[in-house]
Specification:
By secondary structure, the chain is α/β, with parallel strands linked by helices. It has a single domain (about 1-220, about 265-335), classed as Alpha/Beta hydrolase fold, catalytic domain (Rossmann fold, 3-Layer(aba) Sandwich), CATH 3.40.50.1820. Helix content is about 35%, strand content about 15%. It has 13 helices and nine strands. Helix 5 (about 130-150) crosses helix 6 (about 165-175).
Length: about 350
């Protein structure tokens, strides 16, 4: 992600005005706007300690009927879902519409840099030895199960952005019984068929350049959150081979891990929870061409939605000033079809 820091350096001189929430923690920001908030620690099956923040209800309702989990993209964290502030950020919006909202934080990120026995600095090789595969089959699985245990629900709604969509695909294909624990998914900038990805650096830089100066320092405070290089390499393998499959360790190690010299594919036919995909015309990581592939392979695609505005990009799913009307209302409308 070196390119990200190059962009920040280029834009740094333009950060003149401060965002009012700059230097506040996530919990402090949510409390500032009078929303209830809790923080939970979730231990994964392989020993990582993840924090999940919960907004149990909105400002005018105290008995939510449904549970929703929001999952960030690579380099992101729970803060991604509150950047615009209330009432338009998705975490606040869904809480106000009757959802018990939980914010996911994958291993290694801002809120999830602890392990039962490993230190991220002293035991770097072991601690950071994961890609988004492990985030899916450990972090996401254990987070979903934890939330359902706490809330006494049988299933929840899921919103993922970028890598948050990737881990949804992996979880449901690798552990098919998890499909029954997901009422429906809304996948923003779904990332799997990355062989169709054009160059992203210039495009993303242009989007950052166009953001208002007051919100940028607040974004930079939390983005990018830390990640493993293996996450990036795994995506790189997908781009290079055009194949959405498990991490390629080389023939010798693959044979030991997978009983095959080549890594196995993720099976989209097992991804059966009702799914809506959302994408823009100018998103290098989730193009309309990629959306065509999802239509071919996903068995329960119930919404195929291209945002109806020219120039809509990857970051717009979190930062566009009109994102509520363009996307978030559509998410709530989709989920309403599957509420109790």
């Amino acid at each position: 992600m070196r390119w990200f820091f190059v962009l920040i350096f280029m834009l740094g001189n333009e950060f003149v005005h401060l965002h009012p929430d700059e230097n506040l923690s996530l919990i402090q920001v949510i409390k500032k706007y009078n929303y209830p908030v809790e923080e939970h620690v979730i231990e994964t099956a392989d020993g990582y300690l993840l924090k999940a923040q919960r907004i149990p209800h909105g400002l005018r309702n105290s008995k939510p009927k449904e549970v929703a989990l929001l999952a960030h993209g690579m380099g992101g964290s729970a803060e991604n879902w509150i950047l615009l502030g209330p009432p338009d950020s998705l975490a606040y919006l869904m809480a106000d519409r009757g959802y018990d909202v939980w914010l996911f934080n994958s291993r290694g990120t801002l809120h999830s840099r602890k392990h039962k026995t490993l230190d991220p600095n002293r035991n770097r090789k072991q601690f950071w030895n994961f890609s988004w595969h492990e985030i899916a089959v450990y972090d996401l699985v254990d987070t979903v199960n934890y939330i359902l245990n706490v809330t006494k629900k049988e299933a929840l709604f899921y919103v993922g952005h970028s890598q948050g969509t990737t881990i949804s695909f992996v979880m449901q294909s690798e552990i098919p019984e998890m499909n029954d624990k997901i009422k429906a998914t809304a996948l923003l900038a779904p990332s799997a068929f990355l062989q169709y990805t054009p160059s992203a650096i210039v495009t993303l830089g242009a989007r950052l350049k166009g953001l208002g100066e007051t919100v940028l320092p607040f974004i930079i405070q939390y983005t990018p959150s830390s990640m493993s290089t293996k996450q990036v390499w795994h995506y790189g393998q997908v781009v290079e081979t055009g194949e959405f499959k498990k991490y390629d360790y080389g023939k010798k190690t693959n044979l030991k891990r997978y009983n095959s010299t080549k890594p196995p594919f993720y099976d989209f036919s097992k991804v059966k929870a009702p799914m809506g995909i959302f994408y823009g015309d100018s998103d290098p990581f989730a193009t309309p061409r990629m959306a065509e592939e999802f239509v071919k392979v996903v068995p329960n695609l119930v919404l195929n939605y291209q945002v109806p505005i020219r120039g809509f990009n990857h970051l717009d799913f979190l930062l566009a000033h009109n994102i509520k009307e363009l996307v978030y209302d559509k998410i709530c409308e989709l989920f309403s079809n599957y509420t109790s």
